[in-house]
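Reminder to self: tokens first, then the designed residues, so the page reads top to bottom the way the pipeline ran.
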């Protein structure tokens, strides 16, 4: 009898252990997840933003406002989960590389090479942030993460686990051509991971080092007219110039020859080879006009005129070399010339700029986030990219370790925006732009009491303005405030009794008004806005914020 009972107990224990084993991860990264103080504190204190008004830089009111957020990036990313969900085109990060040389802190302690948990701590840091940063990317958004040999392999597996439906590409960049002398190899390179949703074509072309000239006629595998009928059309040439493009002819039509002389001394050039076989141009009829300025003609020895193209760009290769990626010349030297405090290992400006340009060259209103901003190279790169007339915006987040935010990142961005005198006393023109400086702050929120909800609402004003991009205060009344930018208005109502006056204030405003209305629950008082329902977009606060925080801090 006793034996039977022992057996039953043993079998139950085996079953329990089998279930436990099933729950364990079978493939992927496993690490010791030591709780992080900055994450734990969010269970009792909720992050908000507080502006440092004295650090505001405005050079053109009609241009977008860039943001610099000082604080731990876990808190900054939490706020951005409310203000910028699905709004970011590119997240570019250059985290500490975990070299063992005390290059970063975990729970306020520097992590050195002797720390047995150094990889686990680094993975926790990255995991906690990437998990919530992912929510910020647009559908066609791209994550770019710089890394070196210390954590590249771990990061790759971590990214695979977190970004399941994403393509992951790895680029090698020679950033230190002189090399770092190790016991065995001399390291000259680092990496950049590029991630985006599977199937997207979001990576643009890169300038070629050597320009090529090639026939416009296709010489590849499938180069016949029948392989792509929209690539078979005449190109009009007059006085040795390309003057236009004809329509794609109907299927049965055959041109008389490669060059057909038509009226007004105009020649039609067709993609027909020396044997008279109908082939195709490299570009379809609907795209060829876009590259017209890259086309030219050549008189061939046999008397024919042919069309050639200049190939000055190509899809980026996976190994990048070139002096411009040298972190010493185009990173440290640039930063040292702009700030008084030395900053270790900034990126080459052109390393970051080229990474970004591949994605946002054509996205003139792109929003770029860097939550390990350091000396602010990403902000500098975005300001340079905007010299094409673009209105791209950046959001930089950095802690203020050794004064990095206040003494390096901010002065650098300020000088790049406003202009400055270099070491030789020469004037360097400013690139223009606007910046607002925020610090992360906290609201005690151990429990969901009415008092805490009121406090959170009062402290969330700046966060709401950041969400709406409306920074100019137009009304400040007891029960409500109204802000605007050049495109729209946003109102914050603290007291339901102020709804009547608020509606009077927005009576003459054209366009939609985003209205945040205080509510102890999730009531947005639609009935009271019935008469202006087309004009307002209502959100109950703090519930809208709490919903986001409940999700990420659960
Ligand atoms: C490798 S550096 C970035 C360098 C930057 N790309 C540049 O070119 O200047 C990483 C930066 O992240 C900052 N940092 C590290 N941990 C952070 C955290 N938890 N929150 C905010 N910033 C952090 C460090 O202060 C450091 O300046």
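Designed residues (554 positions):
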């Amino acid at each position: 009898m006793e034996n039977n009972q022992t057996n039953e107990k043993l079998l139950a224990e085996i079953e329990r252990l089998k279930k436990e084993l099933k729950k364990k991860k079978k493939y992927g990264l496993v690490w010791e997840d030591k709780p992080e103080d900055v994450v734990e504190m969010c269970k009792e204190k909720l992050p908000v933003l507080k502006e440092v008004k004295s650090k505001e830089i405005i050079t053109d009111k009609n241009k977008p406002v860039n943001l610099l957020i000082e604080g731990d990036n876990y808190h900054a990313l939490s706020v951005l989960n409310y203000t910028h969900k699905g709004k970011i085109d590119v997240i570019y990060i250059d985290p500490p590389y975990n070299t063992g040389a005390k290059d970063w802190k975990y729970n306020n302690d520097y992590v050195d090479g002797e720390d047995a948990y150094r990889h686990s701590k680094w993975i926790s840091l990255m995991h906690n942030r990437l998990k919530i940063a992912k929510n910020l990317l647009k559908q066609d958004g791209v994550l770019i993460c710089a890394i070196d040999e210390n954590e590249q392999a771990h990061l790759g597996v971590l990214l695979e686990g977190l970004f399941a439906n994403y393509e992951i590409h790895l680029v090698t960049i020679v950033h230190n051509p002189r090399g770092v002398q190790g016991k065995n190899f001399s390291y000259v390179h680092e990496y950049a991971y590029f991630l985006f949703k599977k199937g997207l074509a979001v990576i643009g072309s890169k300038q070629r080092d050597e320009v090529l000239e090639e026939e416009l006629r296709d010489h590849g595998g499938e180069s016949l007219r029948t392989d792509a009928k929209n690539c078979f059309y005449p190109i009009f040439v007059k006085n040795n110039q390309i003057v236009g493009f004809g329509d794609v002819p109907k299927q049965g039509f055959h041109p008389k020859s490669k060059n057909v002389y038509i009226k007004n001394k105009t020649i039609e050039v067709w993609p027909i080879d020396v044997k008279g076989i109908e082939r195709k141009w490299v570009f379809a009829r609907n795209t060829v006009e876009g590259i017209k300025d890259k086309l030219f003609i050549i008189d061939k020895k046999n008397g024919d005129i042919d069309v050639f193209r200049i190939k000055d760009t190509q899809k980026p290769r996976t190994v990048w070399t070139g002096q411009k990626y040298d972190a010493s010349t185009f990173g440290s030297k640039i930063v040292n010339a702009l700030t008084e405090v030395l900053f270790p290992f900034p990126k080459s400006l052109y390393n970051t700029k080229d990474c970004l340009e591949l994605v946002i060259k054509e996205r003139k209103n792109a929003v770029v986030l860097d939550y390990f901003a350091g000396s602010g190279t990403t902000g500098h790169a975005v300001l340079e990219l905007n010299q094409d007339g673009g209105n791209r915006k950046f959001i930089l987040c950095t802690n203020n370790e050794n004064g990095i935010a206040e003494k390096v990142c901010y002065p650098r961005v300020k000088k790049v925006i406003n202009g400055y005198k270099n070491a030789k006393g020469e004037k360097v023109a400013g690139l223009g732009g606007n910046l607002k400086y925020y610090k992360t702050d906290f609201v005690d929120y151990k429990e969901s009491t009415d008092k805490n909800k009121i406090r959170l609402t009062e402290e969330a004003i700046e966060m709401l303005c950041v969400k709406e991009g409306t920074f100019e205060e137009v009304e400040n009344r007891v029960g409500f405030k109204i802000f605007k930018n050049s495109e729209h208005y946003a109102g914050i109502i603290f007291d339901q009794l102020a709804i009547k006056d608020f509606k009077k204030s927005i009576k003459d405003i054209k366009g939609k008004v985003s209205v945040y209305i205080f509510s102890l629950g999730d009531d947005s008082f639609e009935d009271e806005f019935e008469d202006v329902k087309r004009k307002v977009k209502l959100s109950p606060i703090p519930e809208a914020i709490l919903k986001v925080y409940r999700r990420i801090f659960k």
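The mean pLDDT is 94.
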